[in-house]
Amino acid sequence: MPSDERSTVASPPAWLNATVQYQGFPLALRVRPGAGTPEQRARLSVLAIVTHRFAHVRADGMPEPDYNYGLAELDGAIINALETDGGVVVVIDTRGGRRNYYAYTTASAASDAAWTAARAAHPGHALELERRGDAAWSLFADYRRRFKF
């Protein structure tokens, strides 16, 4: 191979998006197929789940389109807060009148402050944060198994 040619390996897309039927209802998924590197798994052992309960929902449990469009800024704020201090959002699912953001994080003061700021900047939304240990990344593995990504 000539010296000016370089071998490149395509990196996985940042996000994959799909809408599937799950338990008889639509489930919109955004997943990061490249997440879960050995370095991330070694460093990020806390599963953080942000649940946003929608104010405007269609009969099938999905957000009303105009309402959903208006959530872009909030979506970015939640992702940024969860990814503070090196965390990584791995799955976002939308179903049943809510959107769940699943991220592997550290339990740090910086991530706590980022979450508090994001929530305070969007007071009109029903947001909850839950954290629990998941050093094996079992939630991400379960989504990968179920939805084949």
Structural notes for this entry:
30% of the residues lie in helices and 31% in strands. It is α+β, with helices and mostly antiparallel strands and 149 residues long. The protein has one domain (16-147): Alpha-Beta Plaits (2-Layer Sandwich). Strands 1-2-4-5-3-6 form a six-stranded antiparallel β-sheet, with helices on both faces. A hairpin with a 2-residue loop joins strand 1 and strand 2 (25-31). It is globular, with a radius of gyration of 17 Å. Residues 1-10 have low confidence and may be disordered.
Question: Outline of this structure?
Answer:
Helix content is 30%, strand content 31%. The chain has helices spanning 38-43, 65-69, 72-82, 109-121, 138-147, and strands at 16-22, 25-31, 46-53, 88-95, 98-105, 126-133.
**What is the 3D form?**
globular
Count up the helices. Answer: 5
The CATH topology corresponds to Alpha-Beta Plaits
Return the CATH architecture.
2-Layer Sandwich
State the low-pLDDT regions, or none. 1-10
Oligomer: single chain
- The span between the termini is 34 Å
Radius of gyration: 17 Å
Report the top-level CATH class.
Answer: Alpha Beta
Strand order of the largest sheet: 1-2-4-5-3-6
Averaged pLDDT: 89
Query: Given the helix and strand composition, which structural class is it?
Result: alpha+beta
Tally the structural domains: 1
Order of helices and strands: EEHEHHEEHEH
